[in-house]
Structures are given as structure tokens and as C-alpha cells.
Sequence to fold (316 residues):
Amino acid sequence: MSSKWRPWDFLKHHPEVIDKDNMGLTVLYCSDPFVERILRNKIDFKNWFGQSALITSAMEFTPDWIEENILTLSLFGSDQPICVLQAGHLTAASKRFVLENDLNESGRHLIVFMNGDKKFFNEWQKKAKGTFLQVEEPMFWEFGKLLTYFADEMSMRLPMNIQNYLLEAVPQKSSDMVNALKSIRLSFGTGPYQLDQVKIIIPPTRLDQFKLASLLGGKKLSQFYKELEKLQMDPEDQMLFFKFLQGHLLKLIDTSYVDKKPRPSKYDKEILAHGVLWERGELQKLIRSFSELEILAKTKSPYIKEKIRTLLLGEL
Fold:
């Protein structure tokens, strides 16, 4: 049996996460470690029908361990449940072994958590007997629901204006959302929460790359650099963003790709509108600047802010 659910829908259909009446193999795939932790914490592994579960890791879940603790278990008569964590990191030998052996008929609960190697999860559920559950990642337009989900799990009732602010100000990553909620909870407890107070402790850090690209393409350079200077990004996000900007500028140099599209997007139409504003040499100069910024980000240089400030001053 297999099923897929968004994080906020999963517990509606699996209120106890794992069906304790269903003996055998249960594999739960959840790529988001924060959602996985929430689900895992809802399972009382210390009191499973009067006994505690045996918790093991992917590195310990070897063919020899499986043979000794699961496949030959009937010789000893134990029904202690087993929970395997981070099974996405199973070795190649362990993966082959679980695909070749039936772990569903061990006479005990075997619960496996995976947050990586989706390809192996898909292969396992096709070949094995058992229950395979998947918590799907939200689509980009569903991050409001994810924020509400995290807030509900932390017993926080956020007013709509604060929810809207966080969705605009915080990067659409679970780690950033959870850290923002923790900061609010630490500062103001369970509420009530005021927007002006939240803005003080949670400054805007979300990178809206298309908004910034629009400012850049429209030749609003001073505004672009001011917005860029205010952002707090880790080096990896900086590197990806500066690479994206170079690609954006290359499209402005040669907009002919838009003509080949039967239905140009809003972004494509803006490329056409902005392309006529530039001379080729201007765009090439900017590409060199963002290439330098990408290199600085890749090397985690502390001089990125200084470089952006220099570019800003050149436009004032």
C-alpha cells in the first residue's frame, strides 16, 4: 500500500502516524527534516504496547544486522518494534539486501524513516510488500499552508497580517520558517503578537529574485543595489542568485528566444520590454560584475557587501 499527502493533510489520514495494529514494514518518506521530526515525535517509541522500540540508524542497518535482528527473529520470539532513521543513507549493499528480502513478514513492526534518495524509495515500494507513506513537498504557492502547519504544531496563533509579513520577509525554506517562529515564540511567548514587534526581531531576508531582476532589467540600478545591499543571504544563495542574474542579462542581450515561444510568459514579455533599454556593452559590463560577485560568494569572501556598496555608489 502506498499513499501521498501534504504535511498539513498527513495526520488527518494517519492520526497516529504509524498504524500499530498493522504489523510488518512501514516506510515513511519525508524530504523535509522538520516535518519528519514533527511526525516522529508523535510516536511514543518508549511505550509501544508496553515495551520500548529499538532505534537504529542507516549505518547500523546492514545485511548482517538485518539477518540477525529481523529475518531470524522467530528463533528468539521477540516482537520488539524497530525504527530505522535516515534510511536514505543506507549503503549500496544494504539497499540491495532489503530489495531482495521480504522484511514485511518479520512478525513485528519495522518503521523506516527516509528523507533522502527518492529514487531508492520508489524502487523499494514497487518491489516490496508493506506500507509506503510519502509526505510531499509543498508547491511554491502552498507555503502559507506550511507556515500555518508549523505555527499550529508550536501552538502559535498568528494574525493574518503577521502571516502575510512572514511569507514576504522569510525565505521559503522550512528551516527559515521554523527559526522565525521560534524567535517570535521566544520573544513573545504564545501571544498575542503585534506586527511592529515581529518586524523588529524578524527583518526581511527573503530573496525575491524576479522582483530584483525586474528592477535591474528596467535600469533602476540604484534601487536594485539598495535592495540587494539590505538582503541577508548565505553564500550558497548568493552564488545561485548572481548566477541567475548573469543568465537574465544574457537574455536581455539576445531576446530572440522569446519569438520561438508560442505563449511567452509574463517574464518573457518583460525581457522584450527591457531589452530595448540597454546597449550590449552595458549588459556585458554588468555580467562581469555579477560574475565577480559569484566568485566572491563561492569563496565566502567577506568583501561582497563592499563590492555591492561600490556598485551602488557608482549609480548615485
Notes: The two ends are 63 Å apart (CA to CA). The chain has three domains: 2-135, 140-201, 209-313. The longest strand covers residues 24-30. The first helix runs from residue 7 to 13.
